[in-house]
Q: What sequence folds into this?
């Protein structure tokens, strides 16, 4: 009497005890708050399934939600100890069995929610504004976080997906209200979301990741590349690439394409239409460059400038002039003409060797030849190779010469390695000849995180792929309406493209906004996006890393 029939089957009883132990183990090892009394029916160590047989019939007596209810209030009780890592993130759907998330995914979300929540980011340098500056760098990943769910971005219907593609191809302008009441039921919002994810790519090789190309050898190595040893196939690929490249340039010249990127294994080129980034002519910026590439461009008659090198040189010149003025003033006070002559530096340092004659050793010391003098003059330019400061700017009709140079440049394609024979990647916001429609990858993740001694629901939306400037602005406009004007975001930048945010046309006259809108009506961008991209860049050599919206106003950190 009093014995359970289950006792006659030890394997079944053992499984039951192990299952119950596994469920309650995180709660049993969690530290108790200060001053809290221990639970009455908890054993000191319940690792042996046969140590407390009297509790076996009541295995299902304490449901799992009660365990969660006991654990969640502990942070609010003022516990100074940090909760264990696995307690910071809990499934949102409590009535369903919890899915086993990948460790990397959970750790990634945890790190971002701890480091990049609005309450955790100190001293955002910018003041709140209704628009953030244009960011011309290419993003590889975006992570949006909000207290409102992103269910409206999940599981698009076939009709909504098709409508989004049609709206992109027709450049349909979508204007959403400031606050969408039911985002999940808004077909207009979901179609606009699909529309903002579309971009165009050439070449299209589904088994290869074609962006980024700089430093991508490890991701491409081992993949099938039949063209690497076949010169005839390489010529076919390059011929097809040249047609697509020329098509993009013609669209850019006609202002039917706002901009596009050419991504090689060594450098990236950004072509921009006239009227964008504060310039009244077509521009092309190349980064990073080397002395060999610049010499080849000069030999082809391409006129270009190195704005960052010239800016640094001008700054040093001004500093030296200021120092010379200070020295001259001091010398005037001392009334010493001889000291003044010694302090004045000669502009032609390399051509003045009178001091050798005074010492009588002018015949014994070998004077530098013309090549050495030239290298000395170009020392500052050579030192910036492969650095952001090596950015080269090409303007106006020279962009067409640059087009022909890139088409015929043999060093544009790698001759060895995993990327051997593979043409550069073309990225565009609009369709072009030979381009393939692609979409950015989007997924939403729901979690719970402890923020200021309390658990809060954290909803995140991850966008992966080559996110270009227009897509970044379009997505933020959608989130502004769908998330009620409150969200934060972390941006991951392709570093070689961050320097594209440098203001290269500060000396040019200010453009009339009305004329810009008039000249670029059919480029396929939303008017608000076009207005943002037409402004002069203000981020310098950096890019936006963190963006936050509160009460429909932006703050950002670069």
A:
């Amino acid at each position: 009497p009093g014995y359970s029939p289950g006792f006659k089957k030890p394997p079944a009883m053992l499984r039951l005890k192990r299952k119950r132990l596994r469920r309650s183990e995180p709660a049993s090892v969690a530290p108790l708050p200060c001053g809290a009394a221990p639970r009455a029916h908890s054993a000191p160590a319940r690792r042996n399934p046969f140590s407390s047989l009297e509790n076996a019939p009541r295995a299902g007596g304490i449901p799992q939600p009660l365990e969660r209810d006991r654990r969640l209030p502990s942070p609010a009780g003022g516990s100074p100890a940090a909760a264990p890592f696995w307690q910071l993130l809990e499934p949102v759907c409590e009535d369903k069995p919890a899915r086993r998330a990948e460790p990397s995914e959970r750790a990634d979300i945890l790190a971002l929610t701890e480091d990049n929540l609005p309450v955790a980011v100190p001293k955002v340098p910018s003041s709140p504004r209704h628009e953030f500056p244009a960011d011309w760098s290419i993003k590889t990943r975006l992570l949006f976080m909000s207290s409102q769910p992103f269910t409206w971005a999940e599981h698009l219907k076939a009709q909504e997906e098709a409508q989004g593609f049609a709206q992109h191809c027709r450049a349909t302008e979508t204007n959403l209200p400031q606050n969408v009441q039911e985002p999940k039921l808004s077909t207009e919002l979901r179609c606009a979301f699909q529309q903002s994810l579309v971009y165009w790519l050439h070449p299209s090789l589904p088994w290869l990741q074609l962006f980024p190309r700089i430093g991508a050898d490890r991701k491409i190595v081992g993949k099938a590349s039949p063209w690497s040893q076949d010169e005839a196939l390489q010529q076919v690929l390059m011929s097809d690439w040249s047609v697509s490249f020329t098509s993009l340039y013609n669209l850019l010249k006609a202002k039917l394409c706002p901009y596009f990127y050419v991504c090689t294994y060594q450098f990236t080129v950004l072509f921009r239409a006239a009227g964008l980034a504060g310039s009244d002519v077509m521009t092309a910026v190349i980064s990073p460059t080397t002395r060999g590439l610049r010499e080849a461009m000069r030999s082809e008659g391409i006129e270009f400038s190195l704005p960052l090198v010239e800016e640094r040189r001008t700054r040093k010149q001004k500093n030296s002039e200021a120092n010379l003025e200070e020295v001259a003033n001091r010398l005037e006070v001392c009334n010493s003409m001889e000291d003044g002559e010694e302090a004045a530096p000669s502009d032609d340092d390399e051509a003045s060797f009178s001091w050798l004659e005074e010492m009588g050793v002018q015949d014994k010391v070998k004077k530098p030849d013309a090549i050495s003098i030239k290298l000395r003059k170009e020392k500052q330019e050579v030192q910036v190779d492969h650095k952001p400061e090596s950015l080269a700017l090409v303007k106006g009709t020279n962009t067409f010469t640059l087009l022909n140079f890139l088409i015929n440049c043999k060093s544009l394609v790698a001759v060895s390695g995993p990327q051997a024979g593979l043409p550069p990647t073309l990225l565009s916001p609009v369709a072009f000849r030979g381009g393939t429609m692609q979409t950015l990858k989007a997924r939403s993740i729901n979690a719970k995180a402890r923020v200021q001694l309390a658990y809060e629901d954290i909803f995140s939306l991850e966008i992966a792929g080559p996110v270009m400037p227009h897509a970044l602005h379009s997505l933020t406009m959608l989130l502004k309406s769908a998330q009620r004007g409150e969200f934060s975001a972390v941006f991951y930048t392709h570093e070689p493209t961050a320097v594209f945010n440098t203001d290269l046309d500060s000396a040019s006259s200010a453009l009339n906004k009305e004329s810009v809108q008039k000249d670029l009506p059919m480029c396929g961008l939303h008017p608000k996006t076009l207005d943002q991209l037409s402004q002069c860049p203000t981020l310098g050599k950096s890019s936006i890393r963190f963006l936050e919206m509160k009460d429909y106003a932006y703050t950002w950190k670069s």
